[in-house]
UniProtKB/TrEMBL annotation:
PROSITE patterns: ZINC_FINGER_C2H2_1 (PS00028), ZINC_FINGER_C2H2_2 (PS50157). Keywords: DNA-binding, Metal-binding, Nucleus, Repeat, Transcription, Transcription regulation, Zinc, Zinc-finger. This is Zinc finger protein 154-like. GO terms for cellular component: nucleus. Residues 38-65, 66-93, 94-121, 122-149, 150-177, 178-205, 206-230 form the C2H2-type domain.
Length: 230
């Protein structure tokens, strides 16, 4: 073959390089594991530090080696146990700069900060109401859906809110945690306790707009207005 008719060597090399590059794109090789990272065989996650890798493995094993001595609650991480100990402590190191209210956890202070803001980004799609926190929206939606996720452990009754089922269960247990400091009476429900406290007030809290009568309970005032002024 006439050497004058053969393609230049540089052109042939370029074509070969291009062909190799295309082949690599079609069949990419698996990246070699980084020897400086700890690889989880269960989920494939790579973690930089050995201590974090050990904590991560507990997600798969269910191991909870850190236990609270006060309530026997267990935790996966030591940091979570340290945070939990504040529950049993009177210390409230995180203070709101606006109202001075104090909190045990930074997360609780961050949630509280929304109280002082006009922002309410969580909207109900069934009514015009807006809420500052997702948890408040979730609770509100139960009014529309009539969902009752909290069941009494003693009977078949169900409730929309956790606080309601706790109060109801006292009917079965006989617990009466609300004690009047002016008489020996005790109460199961906080609302009943607050109503009772008004009986010790010198000046009744609810006054009639149509006459001079006053009442300790709002229900008595409403009954009075319906009977005499409607």
């Amino acid at each position: 073959m006439d050497p004058r008719l053969s393609p230049p060597k540089t052109r042939v090399r370029k074509r070969r390089k291009k062909a190799v590059w295309k082949a690599k794109r079609k069949c990419p090789q698996a990246a070699a594991p980084d020897p400086d990272l700890y690889h989880c065989d269960v989920c494939g996650k790579d973690i930089k530090y050995q201590s974090n890798f050990r904590e991560h493995q507990r997600i798969h094993t269910g191991e909870r080696p850190y236990q609270c001595k006060r309530c026997e609650k267990t935790f996966t991480r030591c940091a979570d146990l340290i945070k939990h100990r504040l529950v049993h402590s009177a210390l409230r190191p995180f203070r709101c700069r606006i109202c001075g209210k104090r909190f045990k956890l930074q997360a609780d202070l961050d949630k509280h900060g929304k109280v002082h803001s006009d922002e309410a980004p969580f909207a109900c799609h069934l009514c015009p109401k807006h809420f500052k926190r997702t948890s408040c929206l979730v609770k509100h939606l139960r009014i529309h859906t009539q969902e009752k996720p909290f069941a009494c452990s003693h009977c078949s009754r169900r409730f929309k809110w956790e606080a309601s089922v706790k109060e109801h269960e006292r009917v079965h247990t006989g617990e009466r945690p609300h004690r009047c400091d002016q008489c020996p009476k005790t109460f199961t429900h906080r609302s009943t306790f607050l109503q009772h406290q008004r009986t010790h007030q010198k000046h009744p809290a609810f006054s009639c707009k149509h006459c001079t009568k006053s009442f300790n309970h709002k229900s008595n005032l409403l009954k009075h207005v319906r009977t005499l002024h409607s």
